[in-house]
Write a structure and sequence with these properties.
It is a single chain. The chain is of the alpha/beta class. Helices cover 42% and strands 11% of the residues. It has a four-stranded mixed β-sheet, with helices on both faces. It has a two-stranded parallel ribbon with strand order 1-2. Helix 4 (75-82) crosses helix 6 (105-121). The longest helix has 17 residues, at 105-121.
């Protein structure tokens, strides 16, 4: 059963949404008139030999409550050890998490492995720590921006949104591709609102890479994202990945065809609002 507040399944609408384009190749393989079963999702994962951070074949299994509080039963630990990804039937959030595993298997495995290792390192600590916060923010709300023009990635990093998305609009269309990684962003795409904001991993690529078919480009970005998070220093600050107001991306909202759309300071902010102390 789906949540009563969630939209009904509409395969054609899902496939046609620009905000879901990253997972469109998989959506096209799902039943057009109903949620996929966990077995159907697992078969897609097995086709691509998707594995956990610990090397176990990934399977999407029913989510069950574990009242023991045992460390070994915790979400990331179980996935790392067994490849068992708890997934609620009829949950959009969990569906998009499954599609992320299948679309970006290397990066998802890297994130799972890093969560696992950090949890072991900090076992018994009162706080999660910054490293896990960075991983979770991207896992839930990340976008990978493939960019063949360094001047455009510079505008993004500097929060110069109107210059990027309006003044340089044609250049963005020609030289950037935005791939949604975070399953929470995909869930919000079902009922998008102007303030939807993601964490952005900018990946520099040659122009020829942007001409690749979706799945080929996704595979390259998957490898680059996995390498990024495994690199020293990648998890030291939650501000290492700049925010991105996703409905400002050309073509992702009909309203952004109007220049005035970008004059909303509540969404297209000029910079970090204030400094926050990082968790240890």
């Amino acid at each position: 059963m789906t949540d009563g507040s969630a939209p009904a399944w509409d395969g054609a609408a899902l496939v046609g949404s620009p905000l879901l384009a990253t997972v469109r190749p998989l959506l096209e393989r799902l039943p057009p008139d109903r949620f996929p079963t966990l077995d159907e999702l697992t078969r897609l994962a097995r086709e691509r030999d998707v594995r956990s951070g610990g090397g176990a074949p990934v399977a999407f299994v029913p989510a069950t409550a574990d009242g023991s509080g045992a460390f070994e039963a915790r979400y990331e630990i179980r996935i790392h050890r067994d490849g068992a990804v708890p997934t609620r039937a009829g949950s959009w959030h969990d569906l998009f998490n499954a599609l992320a595993w299948i679309t970006f298997p290397r990066a998802k495995a890297a994130i799972n492995r890093l969560h696992h290792d950090e949890m072991l390192r900090r076992r018994g600590a009162p706080q999660r720590g910054t490293a896990r916060d960075v991983l979770t923010l991207f896992d839930e709300g990340g976008v990978i921006a493939a960019c063949a023009d360094a001047s455009l990635s510079g505008l993004l990093a500097a929060f110069r949104w109107k210059e990027l998305f309006w003044s340089r609009r044609a250049d963005v269309v020609a030289s950037m591709r935005f791939k949604v990684f975070g399953h929470a962003i995909h869930e919000k795409a079902l009922a998008p609102y102007k303030g939807v904001t993601a964490k952005t991993l900018v990946v520099a690529v040659p122009p020829a890479t942007l001409a690749l078919a979706d799945e080929a480009l996704n595979a390259i970005l998957d490898e680059r994202a996995a390498a990024h998070f495994a690199a020293p220093g990648a998890l030291t600050s939650t501000r290492s990945l700049p925010p991105l107001p996703v409905l400002g991306i050309p073509g992702w909202a009909s309203e952004n065809e109007d220049e005035a759309y970008y004059d909303d300071p509540g969404v297209f902010r000029p910079g970090w609002m204030r400094e926050k102390k990082e968790a240890p």
